[in-house]
Amino acid sequence: MKKWVYFFGVGKAEGRGDWKDLLGGKGAGLAEMTRIGLPVPAGFTISTEACDHFYKNGRKHPPGMRQEVTKALTRLERITGKKLGDPQNPLLVSVRSGSARSMPGMMETILNLGLNDRSVQGIAGSTGNERFAYDAYRRFVQMYSTVVTGLPKEHLEERLRAMKQRLGVKEDTQVSAVGWKDLIRDYKEYFQEKTGAAFPEDPQEQLWGAIGAVFGSWMAEKAVTYRRVEKITGLLGTAVNVVQMVFGNTGDNSGTGVCFTRDPSSGEKIFYGDYLVNAQGEDVVAGIRTPMHLEEMAKRMPRVYAQLEKVRAKLERHYRDMQDMEFTVEDGKLYMLQTRTGKRTPAAAFCMAADMVREKLIGKEDAVQRIQPADIERLFYPVIKANADTDGLAKKLLARGINAVPGAAVGKVVFSAQSAEEWTERGEKVILVRRETSPEDVGGMAVAQGILTATGGKTSHAAVVARGWGKCCVVGCDALDIDYNAHQMQAGGRVIREGDWITLDGSEGLVYQGQLPLGNPTLPPAYATLMKWADELRRLRVRTNADTPQDARKAREMGAEGIGLCRTEHMFFTDFEQPEKSHERQLAIQEMILAETREAREKALAKLLPFQRRDFIGIFKAMDGYPVTIRLLDPPLHEFLPHEREKQEELAKKLGITVEHVARRVEQLHEANPMLGHRGCRLAITYPEILEMQVRAIIEAAIECQREKVKVIPEIMHPLTLDEKEMRILEQGTRRVAEELIAKAKVKLPYAVGTMIELPRAALLAGSIAKVAEFFSFGTNDLTQTTMGLSRDDAGRFLPDYVDEKKAGIFASDPFQSLDTAGVGLLMRWAVKEGRATRPNLKVGICGEHGGDPESVKFCHELGLNYVSASPFRVPIARLAAAQAAIQEKLEAKKPKKKANGKR
Amino acid sequence: MKKWVYFFGVGKAEGRGDWKDLLGGKGAGLAEMTRIGLPVPAGFTISTEACDHFYKNGRKHPPGMRQEVTKALTRLERITGKKLGDPQNPLLVSVRSGSARSMPGMMETILNLGLNDRSVQGIAGSTGNERFAYDAYRRFVQMYSTVVTGLPKEHLEERLRAMKQRLGVKEDTQVSAVGWKDLIRDYKEYFQEKTGAAFPEDPQEQLWGAIGAVFGSWMAEKAVTYRRVEKITGLLGTAVNVVQMVFGNTGDNSGTGVCFTRDPSSGEKIFYGDYLVNAQGEDVVAGIRTPMHLEEMAKRMPRVYAQLEKVRAKLERHYRDMQDMEFTVEDGKLYMLQTRTGKRTPAAAFCMAADMVREKLIGKEDAVQRIQPADIERLFYPVIKANADTDGLAKKLLARGINAVPGAAVGKVVFSAQSAEEWTERGEKVILVRRETSPEDVGGMAVAQGILTATGGKTSHAAVVARGWGKCCVVGCDALDIDYNAHQMQAGGRVIREGDWITLDGSEGLVYQGQLPLGNPTLPPAYATLMKWADELRRLRVRTNADTPQDARKAREMGAEGIGLCRTEHMFFTDFEQPEKSHERQLAIQEMILAETREAREKALAKLLPFQRRDFIGIFKAMDGYPVTIRLLDPPLHEFLPHEREKQEELAKKLGITVEHVARRVEQLHEANPMLGHRGCRLAITYPEILEMQVRAIIEAAIECQREKVKVIPEIMHPLTLDEKEMRILEQGTRRVAEELIAKAKVKLPYAVGTMIELPRAALLAGSIAKVAEFFSFGTNDLTQTTMGLSRDDAGRFLPDYVDEKKAGIFASDPFQSLDTAGVGLLMRWAVKEGRATRPNLKVGICGEHGGDPESVKFCHELGLNYVSASPFRVPIARLAAAQAAIQEKLEAKKPKKKANGKR
Prior knowledge:
- 2 copies of one chain form a homodimer.
- Chain A is an alpha/beta fold.
- Chain A has 36 helices and 34 strands.
- In chain A, the strands form 7 sheets. In chain A, strands 15-25-24-17-18-19-20-16 form an 8-stranded mixed sheet. An 8-stranded parallel β-barrel of chain A has the order 27-28-29-30-31-32-33-34, surrounded by 6 helices.
């Protein structure tokens, strides 16, 4: 029989800290904290397996779970000496969700459960505080009505507001017990009116209602959206934590707080957090009241603070990572309610990882494992240009807030998540401005450039969510006076309307009017340290996709160890050294395409030769000592000709031919499915003179560089091959030109001839193609298109449905972003095996977009590729992912093997 | 050491009749005839391996070959008692090509080799016929000059004509020895002038020149073209046969002939052939002189004829097949020069095969093996409609000729092979009319509808080549007066110009003016016999691709055992029962596509439901008792909407919407690569209501048919799937609708749900897809497109280069015609293995165009598919190919195994 419920309390726990998948992060943290002797209120966790069963069986609880809950509840009552629903000494519990991955505020919580018209009197009696008891009761009724029964929150708040108006008070704290009693009656009447049933008095009924609501919240729209945005998949569901209530709102000797063992923004080793006096936990996260800093708390309650400091040290030592903790102080007694690995900014992630290695808390491999690929990406997010005129800046400053997530963002102001989504859809860049954000806003937060809130601290919803995404965020900017109805806000005496530009500086917590120029960030010193460690650990080489000397140089800075894909056709469009001369190249390629004889084509190609040669020289020099893989002409020729009549006329004039000639050729070149048409090496088969010119440019450039003592390693790559014989024709054509030039120059110039593997047939016949090709490079963009029969240009119409969990949900992720390892990956595995069986030293790489995708890089490592090639800015991500793959492989190898490896 | 030369003579031979690959057809035949005691002049054969070596080593002869030739020549001299170049008693030889597959007239021959200024006197002396000797000599000089040295034939013939003019004679036979001597001198001067060297007197030099020329002719343009047209691949090269000369032109007691052991047109068991008195062999084949029939010869030379009759019987018994023989009579003595399996018309092929089984000459399996798939295709070639008004016919009759190849053809007259190719290229149907055809004409002959020649008999070049292709051909039509220069001909007093329509009746040998109506042929009784035998022998089932009740009925007549592919979208275009009502369906589908809500789509689909249901009922009835696989909607939706503004306006009007709405939707649906776009089951994922309507129509039709006691076996097929989860969604959607209807109707209706395998990913993941799909059908059209990255619509621009042996020659054949077994086939093999591993009783078929291609059918048999599906007219071809595959498999199994089977 499966166990569904796990108890914890008084120093013992059935669960463990590493059972997150089973107990959720919160449940596992509570169990672990209990085990290591921290002050944790007792309770029990209903497992995620129960949630999974719930959804797989028409929303029914698994058999046996009810009995287990009853048993756990009895045990909880025994430990606490209280009874659920008892009129004298009632047990109150919180019922909280908690899945294996943190989903801040996405799922439901019910507090103070166990209160009814009788037990509330018991609380009033035992606390001697009637007002507190009825305040807790009204909070419970409100939460239960909205969360479990689904009544609209606004209607209940309306009643709260009306009551306060009747009493003539402004703040909740001013409401007396009588006022709360009135409100509770009012709430219950409303409940009866809306549901046709009385508000449940039976605590058992309340408990099961709450458990059902927590399970139900797993599939609520906002939770599903969040998982989609965060690409969280593979979880069983949420656990349910039923825990004895402790109260932070019993007076000024009570309170509640959220803290981090280190600063989550900078990574500094300082104790960092917020504390709200006389408040319940949710108040901090909701960001409605701006809390005090921990230092302040240290002054006010030094004993509790000292205890908290010890907890901090113990937890960090125990978990060997920065922790994000929730605690409550009830009448001067500290209770830990949650601990989890804390979210952090990219810079903090690097800083902490490097520090912890220095502190010998973790090893280098752990440190490298801790960095998320996205951390690197976000590290390069722009900042406001340092050299901007400071005086001008000051004039534009609108307001100061709390620097929740560093970076900078420029966008047009919108005041709702929905507007953020709509404006973004039509191509606008927006900054989402809210008083505070709530879980319903995640869609809009995800698309915004940055987030700005008027309230909340660094632990508010807005800050936590934005930090997870590394998205620039300023919170607690109380100078903002937002008027949602008028679609505007005021700050510093200025009115900012919806659609006006503002700029956020998340690192300093500043808000500017207008669009400020953004620039590149300064990388934290820990970045270089971590990347060095990563480079030492990885096996996979990392190259770059670069078509120009500029890109090549940039990529070297980013740590690229060569070029994996240099697309020669881009050189036909643009002169990167002298952009104003681009038209000369364009005209030559157009002349070549319009030529009607081989001789005329060769004449036009001769004009292109010096351009290509010069570009190659620049690239070879930038890559001195590193290999450069050059792909010969790939796109269909029609892409080089103008399709509009006017431009055709212009071209005809320049070339001294008729416009009909141009139009006819464009028509001739039109294809029903250009992706599967006359392109790639098929062009070289039809027009060998193109291949000859390109090889000549490459080899002549290489010879010239070699003379200047540059170390050149050219690799000539034929695209879109599908057959050994075809490859042989291309290889012979290539070598004929190259050998002649090399012999004439009387030099020694090693070079390689290879091919892209981007058609299923090429992968299938890799064994025979490797007889000719000296290297393979997987062109996974096209390989994905052909293997899946998916045109990247057209898939927008239905691929979202295929990826969306709420629609068909067929793919876990977009196969153009992350390799389809099951399908495309199987072909790659086959090709590597067959290719190396023919040619054991076959060099194999990947040069599709996937070369910069961490998951795909990991797969490439597993396949034993020699290198991945990524765009310059993704090179560090690939370096990290490659290191992580190598570390994981080592860890896997250490694990005892369970079964024979199922891989083919 | 490899042996390069094989001797034969006086009853003994080093070669054998079944060594065609090594000795060529001619060499193997000569060896075999020698072995079985037939009168064959002695000689030797240089093997095809020597030719292969020649081409693989820069046109150099293999080491040792020269010595072997010298040895064989010595042996020949010993046997004949003559010496090459001897001034008294010289040996003369013929040097002929001969490859493993007959290539009539495609390669070179040199006769009378060994003649020079001295040895010619020996011949004159030994024959006592100086004129004959010098005639032979001038023929040799002419052949050598053109064939070996490559001088233009016209220039030499010019000189011949000039000489005759000088002498004032018209016919060659009127030229005296002196005249020939003059001409020889003239030829030799011309030779010296053109080549700068004297004509070779040394017979050894002559011999090696001739051998080189024969090898060279293997790669001559006409030979390469012929092999391409005939799809002859995998041969090593040509053999060279050096044989003692015998002369059919020594007088009226000599002659030369070609004969068949049975009538190659009708298949009748009669001795059939042509004989030319006092002529050399080439004269018959060239078709310049019209020869006498064999009966005539029987009267003139009864002794020789009787001997020939015996040879005929012996050879047919020996080879167990109809033979095509060449012979020469030299001064009353019969010499057999060649025997080979004779080409025959399709009807003759069936007739002979059935007859020979009855005669117990061969078994049923042999008989089935003897039929070429193309024979069946050609059997269905049209004939002139039998019920045509006979009087009208008579008036249109232009001329009578010899019925060389049966069938009928209509086309526009052209007078050159080049025009035939050009006119066909621009979409015209042509009849090629020539005085006689020559090997240079094969390109034009291949594209013409039919061939008509003024000269030649049934064994002329035109007849032999056309018969091989089953192409309607009339020869020896001497009433035609062709004027090549004026591009016209006269016949029966009428002038027919280039471009005028004529009709050929190849069965009767008649030529008509204008376009006569063509109809279906009457099949020979042997057809049914052979097909019955084939059906008994095959394992593979044969279904058909049919979209209408009419096609379904036709396919049943052709022997289809069910429908493998019923494309439902065709039903959206056309009402096959009431074509005038097609617009109703079109409008409904267009309305569905233009709808903006699910409700509106469902409304439009409801209109389509009764149409589809009615079509399905018709199809089920036609296939009573046989399975019907119905593919749900496949093409992209834009195909159903008009793309021209005018038609869009019309449609908008009919539907009461704006033309902008229509245009916008067309624009929305436009795709860059529709082949890889929103089509196939992706439509059902996006619009489940389409799937629902179609399943409803199928199941309702099936229920209705079942009530009428029709046995229905519906198989519902989802196109373009690529994933198990996707397949699961489709399957569940299908079953939900079907089960509900079946339950409501209270019937039992077995049906299957399966999928096409037409994307590489589907093939790769076949194991998981088979968890859901009950059957697979390989859609090899799309599977070829995606696996090879080849758009069928666009490949015309470069695929011909890929298939053309003279260009890149990368593929042996067009992969859209014959399965790419190496690439696409590998995926199929994998999918069958993986699919059946999951579901052992998985039914697997193929429904691409390849289902009717014999080579592909054979591959499907090997893969162990359950069935192939072909278009109705290709069903018998598939039945035959399936039987032949089964027979071959049996034969292979009997062979001793050489090595472990290399197949994956």
